[in-house]
Amino acid sequence: MDRLPKCQANYVPLTPLTFLKRASMVYSNRTSIIYAGVRFTWLQTYERCCRLASTLRAMNIVKNNVVSVLAPNIPAMYEMHFAVPMAGAVLNAINTRLDAKNIATILKHSEAKIFFIDYQYVPLARDALRLLMANSEASMPLVVVIDDIDSPTGVRLGALEYEQLVARGNPRYSPEEIADEWDPITLNYTSGTTSEPKGVVYSHRGAYLSTLSLILGWEMKIAPVYLWSLPMFHCNGWTFTWGIAARGGTNVCIRNTTAKEMYESIELHKVTHMCCAPIVFNILLEAKPHERRPITTPVEILTGGAPPPAALLERIEKVGFHVVHAYGLTEATGPALVCEWQTKWDKLSSEEQGKLKARQGISVLTLADVDVKDPKTMKSVNRDGKSMGEIVLRGSSIMKGYFKDEGATNKAFRDGWFMTGDVGVVHPDGYLEIKDRSKDVIISGGENISSVEVEAALYKHPAVIEAAVVAMPHPKWGESPCAFVSLRNEAVGTVNEADVIKHCRKNLAHFMVPKKVEFVDELPKTSTGKIQKFQLRALAKTFVVQKENDSSSSGKRPRGKTTTSQINWEKPSYYHQNQEQIMALSRL
Ligand SMILES: Nc1ncnc2c1ncn2[C@@H]1O[C@H](COP(=O)(O)OP(=O)(O)OP(=O)(O)O)[C@@H](O)[C@H]1O
């Protein structure tokens, strides 16, 4: 038996590109993409991708060349997820919330040969290209502007425009053969929450398997109507760029994730599925009455990227959304764990259900194994829901490695495991729960305090809209929890520090209760909307607790004051005004 050889009939390299070709045949007339007044079928999408791929080849793009794109969730961005690898190249979708300096750094590091730019991002891209040009070691990519396909604007940066390249190409183009499924398909840079963004490389095989296992993990049926509320530049839309083709679904593309645009799309197109970070729940929940639309049939939401507090899960489900919680990282091709629902939980109260759903869950099918280990001994921790260790993963959805960074790659892989840098526990039922990032754990009097647990208690307070907890120096305990909280507009002035501490006492063990609560207008965030705890930690270090139960700080803001502080958080270099829009929205 073992002598039977592989041949082209029985051994085809795994690649998500096969999903598109299949969709063009089996779902040829079904709507593939909706964007404003534009609609495509799966056959049209396939032919447009063939055309673009053939033009890229004609432009001397060869195997493993990087093609970068800076665009929101528009049809071109979707098509490039197929067309670029169909030309044999590697897609690098850049986060549109980065600033010019970081975009220039990515273009240089990735050695991008072509840079596609959505017309709205031309000013930002121009600044990035200027910085790149000033760097004598960097080579300049060819620039292509993507004009709005629904209402062309005429904005240009050079001679080339996306639709011209599509029109010029061959719809009968035969995509480049994937010789080896281990070949790279995309290059995605991490969020830079804990360090500088790193270039994560996915293989065709990893992308294919991760796509399938997420479809199964989320139980996504045939022909979903998928709203693009998650940026496609996040781990290729957590693989749903490829996944919607696999299911013959409809991609509803929107430029901005405003409450109005999301609610309108849900109503108009009868959206069945969407993905988002928990921060988007706030946008949906805090929508103004004229922006809201009733959710008449349940919309499935897959959420992840940050811990969703149980209280927030409860609130969003009451509106009519049905949430599935997943945990993952760029390095794991998006979600690696899904909190698979158990029917016996249906009988529980909504509060208990929220708590169970807030756990990060069990591995997706592509992972061969997941564990929580003591990072020093690499021994598995007890499955008691209490013993903490580092979450480690192994399997086909784990990245190939970090591009041009052997040191970081070697550090990330240890003893056959990928080290996530996240601290978690395993419950007796096998479900994992993340307690913190390694760097965020608070050690108070020798006890580990999970900032995520304290935050979950804070979110239960009806006036709290956002909360983050970090370590603050304490003369007796070494460290103690310090909470940074932003309040709903109507609660500002009515809730004080003592109220919040009293609320925490009711919901947490005494040693976990924050010794200080600082009210802020906004919390500092990364380009992907994650809270930058390093900035909070730096500020918390300046707070001095004199004795037990005295939380007076170094002096600027007296205890119990009910107004919020307008702190000018140091903006990271990868930060620009879109971020402010998101924050403003989340606080409306
Ligand atoms: N469901 C979740 N619950 C809690 N935390 C989550 C969840 N999903 C993701 N995370 C956090 O997000 C991290 C992955 O984020 P991402 O890959 O975007 O880059 P980053 O880790 O934020 O950036 P960098 O690696 O550059 O610091 C995980 O390691 C984990 O800390």
Question: Brief description of this entry?
Answer:
Residues 453-530 form the AMP-binding enzyme C-terminal domain. It contains 18 helices and 27 strands.
Please give a structural write-up:
By secondary structure, this protein is α/β, with parallel strands linked by helices. It folds into 2 domains: 17-367, Rossmann fold (3-Layer(aba) Sandwich); 441-586, GMP Synthetase, Chain A, domain 3 (2-Layer Sandwich), CATH 3.30.300.30. The strands form 6 sheets. It has a 9-stranded mixed sheet, sandwiched between helices. Strands 4-3-5-6-7 form a 5-stranded parallel sheet. Helix 4 crosses helix 5. The longest helix is centred in the N-terminal third of the chain and has 17 residues, at 42-58. The protein is globular, with a radius of gyration of 24 Å. Adenosine-5'-triphosphate binds next to strand 14, strand 21 and strand 22. Adenosine-5'-triphosphate (ATP) is lined by residues 190-195, 197-198, 304-307, 325, 327-330, 360, 420, 422, 434, 437, 528, 530.
